[in-house]
Amino acid sequence: MNIGFIGLGNMGLPMAINLLKAGHHVTGFDLVQSQSEAFAAAGGTLSTNANAAANKADILITMLPASRHVESVYLGESGLLANANPKTLLIDCSTISPKVAQAVASAAKAKGFAMVDAPVSGGTAGAQAATLTFMVGGESSVVECIRPVLEKMGKNIFHAGASGAGQTVKVCNNMLLGIQMLGTSEALRLGIANGMDPKVLSDIMSKSSGRNWTLELYNPCPGVMENVPSSKGYAGGFGVDLMLKDLGLATENAQDLDASIPLGQLAQELYEAHSKAGNGQLDFSSVFNLKQ
Ligand code: NAD
Fold first, then answer.
1. Which one of 3.30.470.20, 2.40.10.120, 3.40.50.2000, 3.40.50.720 gives the CATH number of domain 2-162?
2. Taking the CB of the first residue and of the last residue of the chain, which one, N or C, has fewer CB atoms within 10 A?
3. How far is the CA of 253 from the centre of ligand 1 (A)?
């Protein structure tokens, strides 16, 4: 298949490389030269702009930072919807607002395109290992059509519902993740203040009712686990500012719907304070060190 790939960042680059490894012809575009060069070195074909990456593509994938980048790539006179072939299936894997995802998909539909939102979970390690979870919103027939391609980048492909549903699941999941990381950090810090060994504390809580993903697989206390960001100076992983963006999506979504998310709001305030203290680029588990 001919696949266009726009946004070759921390996630997009390894995802596009997995499509190359699966034997697809991938044409990629990114604004950052070093990312483009890494893609070309892996055997990808570089294009000079987003519309050229979509040229002749059976499927076009975008993996961009936020809602505004997705709007600017798809909409307007110079956007993909005005210039690409409507036979090209469009997949947006970026994490963006469900409202924006629905608006872009309906603009696509009006121009004769089929489009799904397909945000992912699993981080950069999952992107490299092709073990991502995809949460897809859109029509069933389109989801089934793209499933074999998504399976080259991920292990679990879920059809969440209609357009925007993939983003809704992603927003709910990441709000819960952000809250869990704060709760786990707080419990560990309290135990340590009592003189507990954080490894012993983590082992016992992992077999008790406080068990959760952040405690068992992504422990925020340095030295408890190997090969997690907390044991590597909180480098790599999922940045504080990206978590903050996702909590912003959750609170904006809740406001639109008059839904009550007091813990989500508090989590946003706490990550914001942590980011403002100069930790925005560190992994989000560094919130373990937040002093209030
Ligand atoms: P990133 O910033 O590393 O990559 C985004 C890339 O998009 C950058 O290389 C940037 O140059 C490029 N870009 C921006 N505007 C562009 C344009 N107009 N044309 C072409 N390229 C453009 O971000 P990432 O970590 O790869 O995350 C991408 C998305 O995936 C985000 O929405 C993020 O929330 C989500 N996500 C990230 C992770 C993670 O662990 N990093 C996990 C799950 C989901």
1. 3.40.50.720
2. C
3. 21
Query: Can you name the CATH fold of 168-289?
Result: N-(1-d-carboxylethyl)-l-norvaline Dehydrogenase; domain 2 (1.10.1040)
Which residues, judged by CB distance below 6 Å to any ligand atom, belong to the binding site of ligand 1? 6-12, 29-32, 35, 50, 63-65, 69, 72-73, 94-95, 120-121, 123-124, 238, 242
pLDDT category of residue 291 using cuts at 50, 70 and 90: confident
253-265 pLDDT tens trace: 999 999 999 999 9
Q: Is 170 a catalytic residue?
A: yes
Domain ranges of the chain: 2-162, 168-289
Model pLDDT for residues 89-131, shown as the tens digit of each residue: 999 999 999 999 999 999 999 999 999 999 999 988 899 999 9
Task: Say which of 21, 109, 152, 170 is annotated catalytic.
Answer: 170
The encoded tokens of residue 196 equal 């507990």
Interatomic CA distance for residues 42 and 223, integer angstroms:
34
pLDDT for the residue numbered 181 = 98
- Which atom of ligand 1 lies nearest, measured to the CA of 29? 20
Report field, pTM of the whole predicted structure over 0.85:
yes
Using left for φ > 0, alpha for ψ between -120 and 50, and beta otherwise, residue 112 falls in left
For the CA of 11, the closest atom of ligand 1 is 26
For ligand 1, atom 42, the nearest C-alpha belongs to: 123
Measured CA to CA, the distance from residue 13 to residue 85 in angstroms comes to: 24
Taking CA atoms only, the protein residue closest to ligand 1 atom 1 is: 9
Separation CA 73–CA 81 (nearest Å): 9
Q: Average pLDDT in the 65-84 region? A: 96
